[in-house]
Amino acid sequence: MVNQLMQKKIKSICVIIILTVLLSGCWDARELSDIAIATALGVDKEGDQILVSAQILNPGEIAGNTISTRTAVSTYQAKGSTFFEAIRKLTTIAPRRIYLAHLRMIILGEEFARGGVADVLDFISRDHEMRTDFNFAIARENTAENVVQVLTPLEKIPANKIFGNLQAAEESWAGVSAVKLDELIASMTSKGKEASVTGLWVIGDPEFGTQLENVEASLSPTEIKTDFIGVFKNDRFVDWLNEEQSKTLNRIKNKVKNTISWVPCDDGGKVAIEVFKTHANVSGSMKKGIPKINVDVKSEANVGDVACALNLTKPKELRKLESKFEKSIEEEMKTSIKKIQEMGTDVFGFGEVIHRASPKEWKKVKGQWNEIFANELEVKVNVKIKIRRTGTINQSFLKEIEEKRKQGE
Amino acid sequence: MIEKGKIGVRQFTVLVLMYTLGTAVIILPSLTASYAHANAWITMVIAMLIGIGIVFMLNCVISIDWKKNLFELSEHILGKWVGKAVSVLFLTYILLLTATNLRQIGEFITTQVTVETPIQFVMFIFMMTSLIGVRLGLEVIGRTSEIFFPYAFTSLILLLILVAPEADFRNVQPVLQEDIGGTFLAVIPTLTTPYLELFIFLAIFPYVHRFKPAKKAFYIGVIIGSVILTLITLMCLAVLGPDFTARQIFPSYILGKKISLANFLERIEILVAIAWFFTIFFKITLNFYVLNLGMSHFFNLKSTKTLSTPLAFIIIIMGIILFTDIIYYNEFVAYYAPYYSATIGILLPMLLLLVGFIRKKKKKSKVG
Amino acid sequence: MFKVIVVVLIAVVVFLLDFATVKKSKSKKDKKVYIAFFILALSIVVLHVMEVNIPTPIEGIKQIYQPVAEPIRKSLEKYL
Amino acid sequence: MKKKFRDMFGKKQQKPVQTNNIPSNLSSPLVTNLDENVKTVKSKLGNSSDLVTRSIKIGKNQPVRAVILYMDGLADKKFIQDFITETLMLDIRITDLGEGQTISQKQSEAIETKQTQSQGSETKNQDETPSNADQAKKEQTKSDQNSQNNTYQAIQPASSNTSNQKKKTRKPIKLKQLKHKKSSNKQQSSESSESTIGSKQSNQAESGTNEKNQTSKQLSIEQSSSQSSPSTQSNQANQANQQAKQGDFFTILKERSLTGSEVDECHDYFTLFQFLLAGDTIILIDGYAKGFTIGSKGFEKRGVEESSSTTVIRGPKDGFSETLRTNTSLIRRRLKDPSLWIENMVIGEKTHTDIAVCYMKGIVNDDVVQEVKKRLKDIEIDAILESGYIEELIQDKTYTPFPTINNSERPDAVCAGLLEGRVAIMVDGTPFVLLVPSLFVDFFQSSEDYYQRSDIGSALRLLRFVCFFLALLTPSAYIALTTFHQEMIPTQLLISLAAQREGVPFPAYVEALMMEITFEILREAGTRMPRAVGNAISIVGALVLGQAAVEAGIVSSAMVIVVSLTAISSFVFPSFNISISVRLLRFIFMTLAAMFGLVGIILGLLVMVMHMASLRSFGIPYLSPMGPFIPGDQKDSLIRLPLWRLRTRPKLISQKDMEREDTEPAKPKQK
């Protein structure tokens, strides 16, 4: 009896001791007020060293009740001989620990990208705090640090602005592509595919963009624009694609959700269609050492914008319009592909198509694929467009206006 | 019998399933993908077929006398001394296995979830939880597994469904055109993790309510478990790509990071990881339980709980000292563990089966 | 040294708590084996705390299976 | 240290020795002398003012003296007036008692002859006030000689003195008695002169009836003999004679004039007190060493009101009350089946609390009934003031936060439990009825689930389970997410959380702990304080602690939301016990979350579920039908299927008479 009671006492004491010991065991705990949430990282090269610019949120400014004159984000910069070192060095300037799990954008300076991005990617995929849901972009003709520093109106967090911008542009313009980490690494490591990353432009004076006045104006003098796609060879940035080429690339990669294209009418003026439901089927074959690629693009479209006299009451007219578009897009794609082939980087992933189609033959050409891609590859493009609807009206009233004008004359 | 509790057939199925998934789900996709590349899922299918064969063999072993557990069986078949020696082999293996599993979960948590926490500490709290489970007995382990099973199972299935939109099956093409040798060779390390460890269920069998359904349950549990494993490997390949999968240490966790439903249901990879905690927890607990059971048989103790506390501490330290680092661990798992596991998980049960069979025949002929 | 003392103290506490359950079984053998294992566990923990290098049994297993493992390892590594 | 513990245990062992004295003393039989009986009863009750003694005479010609005893307040006065006093005093005079009267005559004659010897002293004794110490001594010596009931006699002189002494002697302990003998004698002698006056006065007030007795004695001399106290000679000589006749007289009284329905006889003080103190009326008749007990319980009680702890929108509004019989009647009214068995027990050495064990014979698992009865019988305690006492004494495991015994204030819920094969334990004095065995899911089931449509009932039930986790884990999840797993929080939410936490001086754990404890204090205050100031608390809680704390920057507003969510969720459960457990466990989980984040919570959950899985309630695994999983019982655990699907009773609880119904779902006739 006595023993049991003693033991109970000892037990309770031990539990208390163990609990206190365990309580000290919160190694990983960090309060929300101790972390600095980074939303964008800019990576540049400065001599031998890597310059990292981190866009850090100022939560009180974004979600707080009081409005002050401070900015919603602040940028911290640090240099280091490796990317990781630079990031850790940020803590020497930043008041809090940099927290990377909520990163939206990683912006690579064009200079830096030309020198190769592999080591940065390695850290990003190695670090446990990094997720894979942020986008990559290249600062076009600019340094990443300049892009990171620009304040944006409407969206208080610039990185979110860019992220949203990319998403929206990808969905309804098709000239850009949001590339995530695993896709980037996969295309860089794949032998039959090269990487492509969207570009970011700073319009206006980058210096002015860092100031609060930039967001105070109704039309911000300095803005960030997403456009054009940069292509890589291995991990090195090579060149920019123009608008048509970018669109072509996205069409083939099946990334187009919604875009528009236009053709001139017979009697002058233009007609534009909204293309949706684009599906590209890329098939390939390799016969006698000659690789062949067939690109079949099937699209559905609506008439979006008629700026000429076009009789839209007749089905025949519509079919004519369809074939006109088919031809124009086909032409556009063919020239774009040719241009890209000349660049010598297979951003389309045609190599992988050949690989899947005839793995044995692929093994022979795998080594010099980029040359084959540039010189020998035959690409056939076949576009089919089906115009379904003409919008909420059928016949354009332009005709009437035209007549009226003529009468007036 | 030392263990007085009984578990139901359903509980047994759940335990087998959890055990099969256990640590395999976090290490296998990477392991197979690094040799079989895009064909890793085929490796998994082959391993599953072989695994079913192993289950058949184990079922034959336990059919010799299903009222005896593994340790009693080996003494019964091989005689007291040889049996004890074989028991020692089994016990060492289970001890190392428990320690390895503990290390795996510790490694997983310290690389992905709580990075700054010392691994000893993570292993300690995990082992203590396991110790409580073993102390409460097999019945409680069975019931608890039944409670957590729906969560673990649905979250794994949900994972598979939610990442499906991200899947690009061009990643796994061309099917079985390249790395064919690697595809088949990779079966060897793949077999180790769930299938060659399944023999520990020979120690659980006698405590299942009904024997015949339990044999069936063994198959069902292993098959469902391996199908999920295969699907997860396939998804890892399709979503992340073979190279990315092979490069990751815990690719299925990265797979969880890919979940994104309507921009709302994201960042929930920890909830998926929790499902693995459960499966690994039950694997460790079951291993630890069998270890205790075997120890008490070996020393003819009165209770399975007697040695639980010292053994728990031995396992924690073992988990730390077994592998110096994760590379060493990976090397061992890929190149050496299969043969050790095969010795214990196939050869010894085969031996039991053979000797048992011969003895039975002798008996019959004597009677005849 | 301080660490060792802490470990031993904790071990004593654990022993006091845990031994009660062993006592209940009223088997001398249980007690003996328990104490033996307890001392084994304690010594391993103490060695670990003192940062003495304990050889890992994995090395032994590697040695034993070397002849089987090595050729397969080589052929596997081809596919890495 | 050790000695201290030993002393503690030593005392514990002595206790039963002391308590044993009382029953042995009480179990002494009644004596034939009416006055002495009355005196004993009075003295044992310490002349408590709520004991009413009414002495009457029964019979027309040769009335027999009798005394009606009842406890004022406990007994139904009107009943006593109408059916006992009236019948005995008025109706019996016109009733032909026939044989009985002659017997009583004979008997009293017989007594008379013996009694004459001691009449001198006995007549004085009728005053019930020994006027001097000498007489007390005399009686004492007499009683010492009387081996039959010395203890009773030993008390008598003392009790008949001042109230001061009565108190001492009310505890009729042998040892004490002997010790105090000398002192009491001294006191008697010293106080004798004063006491004559004082006691006279008090007695006049106390027993007006006695005066009447005296006058009546003069009217009928024959009867007077029976009033005298028993002497050794009369007792021995008359014993056989009396008993032969008494029975007959008693049966006549019982059969013809006592119109009460619960009439019993009592032979000793123990039973007498048991009945008397339960509110029954005792009739002692002169010359008989036994009395009648007539059921006349009629104490003030609360009516059948709506239960306050578990309320429903739809469903019966009656709730149990404090009276055991009312409660059994409420159940009986619903289950008009002979298989409803109610067994009574009395537990509590001081309280003598009535306890009823109810079950449906044929449905219930007999082993459970046996186990319940065994555990109840093993209880040795002085008082049962609430069913909580019983619950704690019979539950399977003490050190667990989870209740393994359910209680209900609602008769319909208890009936449903009985029909599922559970055993109900009702305790007199509390409206809370225990139901065993009780499983974890039972604490989430409201009787209203069955009164609403099944889909709605199921949804509400699921909601309660969700609330269980919310109440248990919300603060800990908040701590874990904001201090360990910020990557799990959507960016926008993280920003606003971070903005709120700017300037909060405490870590999230401390913040949560503070708010949770504050809330617990508020809740406790809300239950304990008088209703009238209830509004004040809600104002203080909502405004001062919530809003002001946020504005002052001591806590973040998200934390207030978390705490409120937790609080609301914990009010959802139909059973209060589970909400207490959740309150307790919440703090453990918060600590775990602060230590290891989600990993800690998960391990905590694992340990909690393992602990729950190891629990049993009267042999039934606590987590069934989930662990062990019983497919057939899923119909009524997390969800409730339509009634026509609930064909069988829960499997583990009742294993007999499983079929519940055989209704087909109603379908419109097809033309």
Automatic annotation (TrEMBL), chain A:
Q: Name one Pfam family in it.
A: Spore_GerAC_N
The protein's topology relative to the membrane is:
Lipid-anchor
| Keyword NADP belongs to the record | no
* Localization in the cell: Membrane
Report the transmembrane regions from the record. Answer: none
Tell me which residues make up the Spore germination protein N-terminal domain.
28-196
Q: Which domain of life is it from?
A: Bacteria
Can the keyword Magnesium be found in this entry's annotation? no
Domain Spore germination GerAC-like C-terminal stretches: 230-391
Q: Name one GO cellular component term.
A: membrane
Q: What UniProt keywords are attached to this protein's entry?
A: Germination, Lipoprotein, Membrane, Palmitate, Signal
The UniProt entry lists the main location of this chain as: membrane
Single biological process term from Gene Ontology? spore germination
The text of the family note is: Belongs to the GerABKC lipoprotein family.
The protein, known as = Ger(X)C family spore germination protein
From TrEMBL, chain B:
Q: Which domain of life is it from?
A: Bacteria
Q: Name one Pfam family in it.
A: Spore_permease
Please tell me whether the keyword rRNA processing is annotated for this protein: no
Q: What is its main location?
A: membrane
The protein's UniProt keywords, in alphabetical order, are: Germination, Membrane, Transmembrane, Transmembrane helix, Transport
Q: Where in the cell is it found?
A: Membrane
Q: How does it sit in the membrane?
A: Multi-pass membrane protein
Give GO BP annotations, semicolon-separated.
spore germination
TM helices/strands, residue ranges:
12-32, 38-61, 81-99, 119-138, 147-164, 184-205, 217-240, 270-290, 311-329, 335-358
GO CC terms: membrane
Under InterPro entries, the record lists: Spore_GerAB
Which NCBIfam families does the record associate with it?
A: 2A0309 (TIGR00912)
The entry assigns this protein to a family as follows: Belongs to the amino acid-polyamine-organocation (APC) superfamily. Spore germination protein (SGP) (TC 2.A.3.9) family.
Q: Which PANTHER family match?
A: SPORE GERMINATION PROTEIN A2
Q: What is the designated name of this protein?
A: GerAB/ArcD/ProY family transporter
TrEMBL record, chain C:
Q: Which UniProt keywords apply?
A: Membrane, Transmembrane, Transmembrane helix
TM region(s), chain numbering: 6-22, 34-50
- Superkingdom field: Bacteria
Name it. Uncharacterized protein
Q: Which organism is it from?
A: Salinibacillus xinjiangensis
TrEMBL record, chain D:
Query: Biased-composition ranges for Polar residues?
Result: 15-26, 103-134, 143-164, 203-215
Q: Which GO terms describe its biological process?
A: spore germination
Compositionally biased region (Low complexity): 185-202, 216-244
Q: What is its main location?
A: membrane
InterPro entries the UniProt entry points to: Spore_Ger (IPR004995), UPF0353/GerABKA_families (IPR050768)
Q: Where is the composition biased (Basic and acidic residues)?
A: 1-10
What topology does it adopt in the membrane? Multi-pass membrane protein
Q: Which UniProt keywords apply?
A: Membrane, Transmembrane, Transmembrane helix
Q: Where are the transmembrane segments?
A: 462-481, 532-550, 557-578, 584-609
Q: Which residues form the signal peptide?
A: none
Positions of region (Disordered)? 1-26, 103-244
The yes or no answer to whether the keyword Cell membrane is present is: no
Basic residues bias: where?
A: 165-184
Q: Name one Pfam family in it.
A: GerA
Q: Does the keyword Transmembrane apply?
A: yes
A Gene Ontology cellular component where this protein is annotated is: membrane
Subcellular localization(s) per the UniProt record: Membrane
Assigned protein family: Belongs to the GerABKA family.
> PANTHER family this protein is in?
LEUCINE ZIPPER PROTEIN 4, SPORE GERMINATION PROTEIN
Q: What is this protein called?
A: Spore germination protein
From what organism does this protein derive? Salinibacillus xinjiangensis
